[in-house]
Amino acid sequence: MSGHGAAQPMTARRSGPLRGRAEIPGDKSISHRALILGAMAVGETRITGLLEGQDVLDTAKAMRAFGAELIQHGPGDWSVHGVGVGGFTEPAEVIDCGNSGTGVRLIMGSMATSPITATFTGDASLRKRPMGRVTDPLALFGARAYGRKGGRLPMTLVGAAEPVPVHYTVPVPSAQVKSAVLLAGLNAPGQTVVVEREATRDHSERMLRGFGAELTVEAAPEGQIITLTGQPELRPQTVAVPRDPSSAAFPVCAALIVEGSEILVPGVSRNPTRDGLYVTLLEMGADIAFENEREEGGEPVADLRVRASELKGVEVPPERAPSMIDEYPILSVVAAFADGTTIMRGVKELRVKESDRIDAMARGLEACGVRIEEDEDTLVVHGRGSVPGGATCATHLDHRIAMSFLVLGMAAEAPVAVDDGSPIETSFPIFMGLMRTLGADLSDG
Ligand code: S3P
């Protein structure tokens, strides 16, 4: 989906109390990985709860282009007949990853150590994002990348015919880079080592082990040392994709700021590499009860009972950023309704997401009457307990910016519109319907 259809403006108005149960769709990160690892295993991987957002559907299409057979049996219920590690065939067409940085970077990793060539592109947002962060380490395996200036898509990746294993220290906290290197390491002989200074989401490590790869993680003074033994035969799995905590963040935060709300969000991941938002919300005074803690799909989960709360501003430390990197936009909305100042430090990675999220949030919040401060690596929101609203916010092809401003509109004094809500389809296609069922006053246009 490199093209982008007509913009879809959407508006949120001050809403009555939100009530009910919010069933969140499957985790986006785990869904991409289930399809890619399924394609690299020999035999049939069965996936339930797959997120059928556009990002994941684009990865499914790509896996077909590399030779895997994918069958959709029903909603979220898929089979992937994999071709084995090193079994990818050369795609005949350009691989279009749409809006998805995770999709393109993980797929590049998965093909970089096979003797095939593929050309990748994406939508206007993805074509602006840096790919050098993955093609640099992939070059160490012997792959060659030819892209636009600044390492931008469209880009052709020539896989290494005789890959060598690598030892790589990831220079930015990025699960995508770590995962691309690990996926490339699958088809290199010997041991590939990835050193991560700050722990990022660990779904690739958990799932690689689940598919039968030999992978160890060691704590060392320089960070985590992840060692993968190359050329395993991956065994097909049954993957039950847990719900996405990054999507759950939107109804949870909406319930906190819409007066009188009480909702239940079942099965939210408590994986410590993903739960920084929830730690922060509790520090702000959020009334969230974690009920029925258990394991689902290999992830620790709990049912969240969330009640509208009086919140106070907090300082979010930089070391927490990797565990809540996608949640800063919605946190900055919650911060606007809190009493006092919230300081988010160490967030410069937000500048290279689907949009420059610091800039997008800062401009939209200002337009809604919220006082903010920003620098390259920091966002500060001065909360006053209420927000005037009454603006149209630009979403820059970014699903999380769109959902964040719609949540803001549910509690602001005057309606808040977004210029284009269509990117919500990439990660949380049922967002509008689900939020309306809970009582949100949302309209198209
Ligand atoms: C993801 C990693 C994060 C995150 C993205 C999903 C993943 O990106 O923002 O939405 O599935 O590995 P970075 O690795 O660039 O931080």
From TrEMBL:
It comes from Cereibacter sphaeroides (strain ATCC 17025 / ATH 2.4.3) (Rhodobacter sphaeroides). Keywords: Amino-acid biosynthesis, Aromatic amino acid biosynthesis, Cytoplasm, Plasmid, Transferase. NCBIfam families: aroA. This is 3-phosphoshikimate 1-carboxyvinyltransferase. Residues 15-432 form the Enolpyruvate transferase domain. The gene is aroA. It holds the Pfam family EPSP_synthase. Catalyzes the transfer of the enolpyruvyl moiety of phosphoenolpyruvate (PEP) to the 5-hydroxyl of shikimate-3-phosphate (S3P) to produce enolpyruvyl shikimate-3-phosphate and inorganic phosphate. The keyword Transferase applies. InterPro entries: Enolpyruvate_Tfrase_dom (IPR001986), Enolpyruvate_Tfrase_sf (IPR036968), EPSP_synthase (IPR006264), EPSP_synthase_CS (IPR023193), RNA3'P_cycl/enolpyr_Trfase_a/b (IPR013792). Phosphoenolpyruvate binds at K28, G101, R129, Q176, R357, R400. It catalyses: 3-phosphoshikimate + phosphoenolpyruvate = 5-O-(1-carboxyvinyl)-3-phosphoshikimate + phosphate. GO terms for cellular component: cytoplasm. GO terms for biological process: amino acid biosynthetic process; aromatic amino acid family biosynthetic process; chorismate biosynthetic process. 3-phosphoshikimate binds at K28, S29, R33, S174, Q176, D326, K353. It is found in: Cytoplasm. Its main location: cytoplasm. Monomer.
